Amino acid sequence: MQNKTFSFMILAAGKGTRMKSNKPKVLHEVAGKPIISHIIDKILSIRNNISIDRISVVLGKESREIKFYIENNYKDIDIIIQNNQLGTADAVLATESTFKNYKGKLIILCGDTPLITSKLLLDLRKLSKNFRLGLSGFKATDPKGYGRIVLNKSNQVSTIIEENDANNLQKKIDLCNSGMYISEAKLLYSLLSKVKFNSKNKEMYLTDIIYIANKDNIKIGITYNKEVESLGVNDRKGLAMAEKEMQNILREKAMKKGVTLISPETVFFSIDTKISKDVHIEPNVVFGPGVKIGEGVRIKAFCHLEGVTIKKNCTIGPFARLRPGTILEEYSKIGNFVEVKKSKIKKGAKVNHLSYVGDADIGSNVNIGAGVITCNYDGVNKNKTTIGSNSFVGSNVSLVAPLKVGSNALIGAGSVITKDVPKNMLAVERNKQVTIKKRNKK
Questions:
Q1: Helix (H, G, I), strand (E, B) or coil at 219
Q2: Which of 15, 50, 142, 416 is 20 to 30 A from 6 in CA distance terms?
């Protein structure tokens, strides 16, 4: 017997005007990743559990930025344009030419739900074993703003009432619609052909297919998910709520892996942060995208890391900024008020205080003194600084790149170094000190 196949349809054609932004709503980020990307990645994550034929995203005709993002970050994602944007039912109808002859099941998702889980998706799939049409619902602590799912006397789904159309009794219902459905393709488009325009909003509601199906004696399945999994981002407040919930998820995940968070609510991760056990993180630390952290690392308070790889037993901060392209090898140390950009800090090296290291290769056991600057930009190009192992750079030194300093070299404090320094040599550049007797005041 042939396995059932499924296709996914993500509705992302909404204008998102409540975001008050020039950026499309679904490209706003949660935990360092666009909302639409969270949804696509969650679908892709269950490919071993479900046979997926295709993934389609429904966009408005002016959604060029979203189209560009998807095409540049994913392969084989269909873009379907909803020309008139006359509601959610109209958005699904825009896909009819793509799926009208499809023999598998269609799963319809909202494009603004970054906290959707694989369990929710797989639970929808399970409904297809017993129902031709199904939906996902949740019990809300405060149902205001949600569409209400109305059950009949047999606890079967009978209809969905939108908030604006609900009477006072219906508004007390706490079972709410997540906006996610599964249906046979032929049945879906048959039901959609009977949906009429809502007289108040001049739109076609996708929720009306539930009422029509019930009227046609089609049994409707329902699966229950957590409210947070259906959290939709409609405005900046919703974006902040989604970020808060995502961070709680990521913090709990980190602590379960053996990470110590002294003040969890003040630490912010990106969705792709990779962190090993026995890492110790003090308060007010922010992880941007692309961070990998090895075992035994200690990150002190008020640090910002993005696009860096930190190997075992390093120490960072407090008040350090590590920028993309930086690699810290084992037992290296980055101290307070230090910025490192696109540099490799090798085993046991130390950059302790008030320094900037950019486009550099710092050898093992090198000591970089306080106030050292690699002058890597000449106004046109970024140039590289290389320092050999076991060298010592004194405080307030300016290293003017391109520059090579050999191993076991010593650079005197206050120097401006513009020429290469061979290994085992001392380099000093400073004016001769002049001491003049002070004049007595008259």
A1: coil
A2: 15
Of 55, 112, 60, 56, nearest to 86 by C-alpha is 60
* pLDDT value of residue 441: 66
* 16-40 as b/e: b if 16+ CB within 10 A: beebeeeebbbbbbbbbbbbbbbbb
Per-residue tokens: 352: 């302790």
pLDDT in tens, 198-215: 767 788 999 999 999 999
The three-class DSSP label of residue 87 is coil
Going from the N-terminus, what domains does the chain have, and what CATH number goes with each? 6-230 (3.90.550.10), 248-427 (2.160.10.10)
Structure confidence by residue, pLDDT tens digits, 341-376: 999 999 999 999 999 999 999 999 999 999 999 999
From CA 178, how far away is CA 225, in angstroms rounded? 9
Task: Determine which helix (DSSP H) or strand (DSSP E) holds 321, and give its type and residue range.
Answer: strand 321-322
- Among 28, 38, 304, 353, which one carries the catalytic annotation? 353
- Residue 28 catalytic? no
What digits encode the pLDDT tens for the residues 16-58?
Answer: 899 999 999 999 999 999 999 999 999 999 999 999 999 999 9
Burial class (CB in 10 A: 0-12, 13-18, 19+), 336: middle
